[in-house]
Amino acid sequence: MLLMQFNAQSLDVPSITEWQPEEIRAHIAFMRTTNEKLAAAGELVDAQGLAMPETARIVRAAADGSALVTDGPFAETKEFLAGWWIVEVSSAERAVAIAAEVSAAPGPGGAPINMPIEVREVMSEPPAEPGAED
Fold it and tell me: Which residue did the predictor score with more confidence, 4 or 125?
């Protein structure tokens, strides 16, 4: 799984709400082309972009089991999940290569954003116990 993180502290990129319309179109076109290439290679399982964090809601179970809903993440949050790809690839190195390509998505002025992309394996079963045989 490739997790697209936005971190205002480590990126020198204005919020996408400040980009010019043609910059947003170029960014989205890059993402669509990336998805098309991954699909054509048989590597794409799913990819989604997320709405801005101010639309998010945090849900917890109240004592009676009902939903307790609050706004979130909060204004002090400097990092948020912007989207993800689930890819099925032959090696961890291939996942890292895809993450590097996605990180270079164009931003303002067409310059690469170099957004951090977290690469994590999706677990299909619990990890093996140390010393356990297959």
Answer: 4
